[in-house]
Specification:
The complex is a heterodimer of chains A (294) and B (339). Chain A has 294 residues and is mainly alpha-helical. Chain A has helices spanning 2-7, 12-22, 24-41, 43-46, 84-120, 122-137, 140-151, 155-163, 168-182, 185-192, 197-234, 245-252, 261-293. Chain A has one domain (21-42, 84-293): Orthogonal Bundle (MetI-like fold). Helices cover 73% and strands 0% of the residues of chain A. Chain B has a domain at 229-263 and 277-339. In chain B, 30% of the residues lie in helices and 23% in strands. Chain B is built from 11 helices and 12 strands. An 8-stranded mixed sheet of chain B has the order 6-7-8-3-9-10-12-11, sandwiched between helices. Chain B has a 4-stranded antiparallel sheet with strand order 2-1-4-5. In chain B, a hairpin with a 2-residue loop joins strand 1 (9-20) and strand 2 (23-35). The relative contact order of chain B is 0.14. Classes of the chains: A mainly alpha (294), B alpha/beta (339).
């Protein structure tokens, strides 16, 4: 019955899940990311205070690892007397909302353009490459600044601005992957059984690009979160009093020498989140590429 | 001749050109031929002689850079030279199908074998998934794949090259097409598998009573499989006729040269004889060509060969060749004496 066993091969997905659990960086980063995601989702349940509640009599309390901390505020309070832990927890929401929406919007734009450019080639490709180059020539912070000046600051505005800046890597990678896939015989075979261009793009080439898109997606998500923080830090992103890690960093700037924890707590959160996402992307790439070979 | 059944394919003056920076490349020049229902037409020639281009041109699958010009391209009596893309899509996979050279890359790695087979049927037939599955199973069985039920659930990378080529054949047969174009279907396979796949192809062709265009550079394959042969050189047909006649009495010097390049099972007294070669190289396909394309390699070429257009000569009914020499004249064994 040997042959029989060989024939009943393990399905693709089951093998992938098992290997994911065996991969240390995917396991670790996945856990961290999942934890942050859960914290963000149930923020109102676990945050000890309202992140917007001022109490000027209790301002600048130190966190738990300093002398004279207040057990009521584990991570201390900010210069307005707001609970730092609560703001940190709510800040995760902003970071994740922005990271995830940017990943989807820019992924959609970039993947579509890359697919079209890579598949049709020629004049179409030239036009899309021109658009990509134009985008690369635009400085993100100057544009973000103008958007804020014209439309005023908002989370939606920040998401759209960042999205319109982060699709280029999707487009370039998908374009070259599509070019590669389009020259494969199975695309010609699909045409020879009467498939339309649209079906070939979506049904034949598309699924072969999923791995690449997932990996780029994680990289761009981490990048989007960092850009949001930078924009908020400079005052062009999320505005007070919304809790955002970048904004917390901006406020902490003037207390750098005396209350440095104001700076490194949100900094560490930002670092941890970006690192986890990047590690996950890296691990996924290893897993998915290995899966291809399997 | 009775006209009950139209010819499966009738091609008149097919041209395939590529515009390049250094001129127009004529990949296929004024090709005219036909395929009868229920016959295997072998197309032979060396690499770059336009065999595959001809196949792609018939299926209208040429890349955007290629330009196809054809006076008439009749499929089952209907002209399909100028039909829309959608009408062509409806024909492809349904009435005409193709088998490719590389079974390793002709199947999409992300779908199971079953999905890919069913796709063809669902696309062209108003059928349910269950119907398509039943059809796919019976075809997998027919092309000799053991345990078809398990194979249906597998991905292409779990199959060997020979099995994949059988799957490709099954896929081509899903809708029982009138014409199958097999472009070097066995080139990428082991020799033992080659023989099996060819035998299968021939058996299925008889069973389904369909026309097959078999493109190959292997004369042995043609001799075994084809009813009629087209010999192509530099984008032109240099000789065409029934397989028996071509192999027994080749008229064009190029065909004669090709046949001498075939290693024969050593006949007594001849063992150790040198294998024939055709000296020289294929002419450039860029620009217009005057005279015979083979003139610069032909041992019998004379001045007239290099000018004007070379007309087709009939050696026998249905056996034509493009050469100025009368049939039988050029059998002077030039290639063998030039040791």
């Amino acid at each position: 019955m040997d042959q029989r066993q060989e024939l009943e091969a393990v399905p693709h997905s089951a093998g992938l899940a098992r290997r994911a659990l065996g991969n240390a960086s995917v396991l670790m980063s996945g856990t961290v990311l999942l934890a942050i995601l859960i914290i963000a989702v149930i923020a109102p349940l676990i945050a000890p205070y309202d992140p917007y509640a001022h109490d000027l009599s209790r301002r600048l309390l130190p966190p738990i690892f300093y002398d004279g901390f207040d057990p009521a505020h584990l991570l201390g309070t900010d210069p307005f007397g707001r609970d730092y832990l609560s703001r940190l927890i709510y800040g995760a929401r902003i970071s994740l909302i922005i990271g995830i929406s940017v990943m989807f919007i820019s992924g959609l734009i970039g993947t579509t353009l890359g697919l079209i450019a890579g598949y049709f080639g020629g004049r179409t490709d030239q036009v899309i490459m021109f658009v990509i180059n134009t985008r690369l020539a635009l400085p993100i912070f100057l544009v973000a600044m103008s958007v804020v000046v014209v439309f005023g600051p908002s989370i939606t505005g920040t998401i759209l601005t960042i999205s319109l800046f982060l699709w280029d890597r999707f487009a370039v990678v998908v374009r070259s992957a599509t070019q590669q896939a389009a020259s494969q015989d199975y695309v010609m075979a699909a045409r020879s059984i009467g498939c339309s261009n649209r079906y070939i793009l979506v049904g034949e080439i598309g699924p072969n690009l999923v791995n690449a898109v997932i990996v780029i997606g994680t990289i761009e998500m981490a990048y989007a979160i960092l850009i949001e923080a930078a924009l908020s830090f400079l005052g062009f992103g999320v505005q007070e009093p919304t809790p955002s890690w970048g904004l917390m960093l901006a406020q902490a700037r003037q207390y750098l020498f005396f209350d440095s924890w104001l700076l490194y707590i949100p900094g560490a959160a930002l670092f941890g989140l970006a690192l986890a996402i990047n590690l996950l992307g890296d691990g996924l790439r290893d897993l998915l590429v290995a899966g291809d070979r399997g | 001749m009775t006209l009950q059944r139209p010819r499966t394919l009738e091609v008149e003056n097919l041209n395939v050109r590529f515009s390049r920076s250094n001129g127009v490349l004529h990949a296929v020049r004024d090709l005219s031929f036909h395929v009868e229902p229920n016959e295997i037409l072998g197309v032979v020639g060396e690499s770059g002689c336009g065999k595959s281009m001809t196949a792609l041109a018939i299926m209208d699958l040429l890349s955007g850079r290629a330009e196809r010009r054809v006076d008439s391209l009749k499929f089952r009596g209907e002209d399909i030279a100028r039909v829309s893309g959608n009408e062509m899509n409806a024909l492809r996979g349904d009435r005409m199908a193709m088998i490719f050279q590389e079974p390793m890359t002709s199947l999409n790695p992300v779908y199971t074998i079953g999905d890919q087979l069913e796709e063809v049927y669902l696309r062209h037939r108003d059928a349910t998934r269950t119907d398509a599955r039943t059809r796919a199973l019976s075809l997998l069985d027919m092309v000799g794949i053991p345990a078809p039920r398990q194979r249906m659930r597998q991905y292409p990378h779990q199959l060997s090259g020979g099995l994949r080529q059988r799957v490709m054949i099954a896929m081509a047969l899903m809708c029982e097409p009138d014409l199958i174009i097999a472009d070097e279907p066995t080139t990428a396979l082991d020799v033992t598998i080659q023989a099996q796949v060819l035998a299968l192809l021939k058996q299925l062709q008889r069973e389904f009573a369909m026309a097959v265009i078999l493109i190959t550079h292997d004369l042995g394959v043609v001799a075994r499989m084809a009813d009629r042969v087209l010999v192509m050189y530099a984008g032109e047909i240099v000789e065409s006729g029934p397989t028996q006649q071509i192999f027994a009495g080749p008229c064009h010097p190029y065909t004669q040269g090709l046949l001498r390049c075939m290693p024969a099972a050593s006949t007594p007294g001849q063992s150790g004889a040198r294998l024939g070669t055709i000296p020289g190289i294929v002419p450039s396909l860029i620009g217009e060509m005057t005279g015979c394309a083979f003139a610069n390699r032909c041992p019998h070429a004379f001045d007239d060969c290099r000018h004007g257009t070379i007309a087709n000569m009939a050696a026998e009914a249905d056996h034509a060749y493009r050469c100025l020499l009368p049939a039988g004249q050029s059998l002077s064994n030039f290639y063998e004496t030039s040791k």
